[in-house]
Amino acid sequence: MLKRKYFLWFIPALVLCLVLPFSASGQEKVIKIGGLYPMTGRAGLYGLDSVDAAEMAIEEINGKGGVNGYKLEFTNTDSKAKPDYSVMVAKRYVTQDKVHFLFGVVSSAVGLAVTEVSKQNKKIFIGTDHASTQLTTDKLQPYYFRVSNNTFQSMAAGALYLKELQKTKPWKTIAYIGPDYAYGHDQWDELKFNLTRFGVEFKAVGEYWPKLFAPDYTAFITSIINDKPDILVAGFWGGDTVAFIKQAQPYDLFKKILYFHPDAGGNYELMAAMGTDLPEGLVLSARHHNNWPETELNRDYVNKFFKRTGRYPTYAAEGAYAGIYAIAEAVNKVGNPDDTDALLKAFEGMKIKLPEDPDDFTSYIDPKSHQIVQVQAIGVTERNDKFPPAKLMLGQWKVYKAEDLLPPPDYIEQLKKK
């Protein structure tokens, strides 16, 4: 962006108008995006990756001339993964910074808080990472859109995987461990619903609810081993996944029980943090994978992120990258970032090709739920050193159709009545 205009006295004013995107008042035309990502603690890597990916997308778009004469401008404030603090920041973005879009966040608790600010101020909120289904069902409001899978989609894929598994490795009992807030509870409720929906016979033999960012899982691990489920489903995310698996290793939990983690377990952070200590044979998935799908678009995205940062991206990064491109697509269709009503219509039903899409599928936003609709792949940990420092990645993929993963209308109505 050319700011030192006193060096340009010799360039005709007409040329300047053609080169630089300025409004009639002489101000540069910008699309302001206010990010709320945590930059510290166990969730810090997700925030760091999201900011890097958002900035990468913005540089790509601005480098091609921006959107209809507008440049994208992104600001992030450390949300600290705290709802009350994030609400304060979101209100400042709206009232003082005059952002066009609220953007982010990692924790569903923060997402549920910020969506209220969005609703009250009629400011569009693009959700890029948090996954509680409540935000696109009973807590849905007109100004919220999500560009990554919600927990229902992951649990529907998980139920289909477990149904197939019963044919080759018969199992009967299941247990669940996840964080004690909306994100964790949603997953367990949705998995049980989908297992029943798809005709899977099972017996739940335990459920365990540690707090988010709990330091010690020992008591839960011993309880799980004593309850002896055939399948342990986990609903952790981020550093909590790494901490739980590291702490469970000395107890040989993964030799006794199949560990199944279909929403956030297959995140690259786990592979990188554990190296050769990561057990083989864990069944995991996430919202983006570095090594699936094997498409030119995904390889290009992963390689550009690595070249920019020196590390491979977690799934949170791809959500932020997708969110920036969704904003650009909507503004391009509408013509400016100030017509909120037109932007809402532009987001509803939007089709957008993303790195996580196989060649034969394009992500789209469901106009009723404002939830992006995407394919989901579930894999198994196996030896693969092509993405260092990881020594294992996911393979043996099972891929589930996007339309099969959406909640049925009666389930949504059931949630709204609660």
Please characterize this protein's 3D structure.
A 7-stranded mixed β-sheet has the order 7-6-8-9-10-14-15. α2 (44-63) runs parallel beside α12 (315-334), α3 packs parallel to α4 and α8 (239-248) packs across α10. Mean pLDDT is 93; it is low at 1-20. 41% of the residues lie in helices and 17% in strands. The chain contains 14 helices and 15 strands. The chain is α/β, with parallel strands linked by helices and 418 residues long. The protein folds into 2 domains: 20-149 and 294-373, Rossmann fold, CATH 3.40.50; 152-292 and 375-416, Response regulator (Rossmann fold).
Essential attributes:
single chain; 418 residues; five-stranded parallel beta sheet; 14 helices; seven-stranded mixed beta sheet; 2 domains; 17% strand; Rossmann fold; disordered N terminus; alpha/beta
CATH classification, class level of the largest domain: Alpha Beta
**Continuous helix count:** 14
The first-to-last residue Cα distance is 51 Å
Low-pLDDT sequence parts: 1-20
Question: What does the oligomeric state look like here?
Answer: single chain
